[in-house]
Design goal:
Blueprint (H helix, E strand, L loop, with lengths): L2 H11 L4 E9 L5 E7 L3 E12 L9 E5 L4 E2 L16 E3 L9 E3 L23 E2 L2 E4 L2 E7 L8 E10 L5 E2 L1
Antiparallel strand pairs: 1-11, 2-10, 2-12, 3-6, 3-9, 3-11, 4-5, 4-10, 6-7, 8-9
C-alpha cells in the first residue's frame, strides 16, 4: 500500500475506526456468532444489519443482538423488527443497551434503503461512552424468535476502534 493510499485509509477510518464485514447468511432461530472480539477491549462505533433476502418470519417475529459476556443484550431484546422484512431493510443499535433497534423499511432492491439515523450515542451510566459501546473479549450474536416459510438473510457491518494493543474484531 502506497503512502497516498495509507493516508486515505486513515482519514476514511478516523471517525468510525476499522470496518469488519460479515457476508450475508441465513437468518435462523439459534444464536449465531456474527463477530468475535479477541485480544482485549474495543470501542464499537457502529453495528448495522442489512436484509439481502426477504424473510417471512411473521409480524410478531423478533430478533436479538447480544454480547456473550453476561450475556448482555445490545438493545431491547424483543423489539419486533423481523416480521416480513423486505430486501434493503437496515437496522442498527443506538449504543444504549435498553434502546430498541433503529429500523428503516427496505425498498425491495438489494443495497438500497431510505436514510437512517445510526450513530451510537451511548450513556456513561450503562458503561457506554458518548461515541460507541465498550466491549470486551467475546462474541456478538444474533438470534431470531421465529422463521416462517421463507428464512431471509442479512449481512452485517461493524466498525470499531481497538482500545487494547492487539484487540481485534473478526
Amino acid at each position: 500500500m502506497g503512502l497516498k493510499t495509507e493516508i486515505q485509509a486513515a482519514l476514511q477510518n478516523a471517525g468510525t475506526g476499522l470496518k469488519v464485514y460479515r457476508a450475508a447468511a441465513a437468518d435462523i432461530v439459534a444464536a449465531t456468532t456474527i463477530f468475535t472480539i479477541t485480544g482485549g477491549f474495543v470501542l464499537v462505533t457502529g453495528l448495522v444489519g442489512i436484509v439481502t433476502v426477504i424473510r417471512s418470519g411473521g409480524a410478531g417475529a423478533t430478533m436479538s443482538l447480544t454480547h456473550t459476556v453476561g450475556p448482555t443484550a445490545l438493545h431491547t431484546p424483543n423489539a419486533a423488527v423481523t416480521g416480513n422484512a423486505t430486501v434493503g431493510t437496515i437496522f442498527t443499535i443506538t449504543g444504549v443497551p435498553g434502546d430498541a433497534l433503529v429500523v428503516s423499511v427496505g425498498t425491495g432492491v438489494l443495497n438500497t434503503a431510505p436514510p437512517i439515523q445510526g450513530p451510537m450515542m451511548g450513556g456513561a451510566l450503562l458503561g457506554v461512552q458518548q461515541f460507541g459501546m465498550i466491549m470486551s473479549i467475546g462474541n456478538i450474536q444474533v438470534a431470531h424468535s421465529a422463521i416462517g416459510g421463507a428464512p431471509g438473510s442479512t449481512r452485517y457491518i461493524l466498525t470499531y476502534i481497538p482500545l487494547d494493543m492487539g484487540a481485534v474484531v473478526t
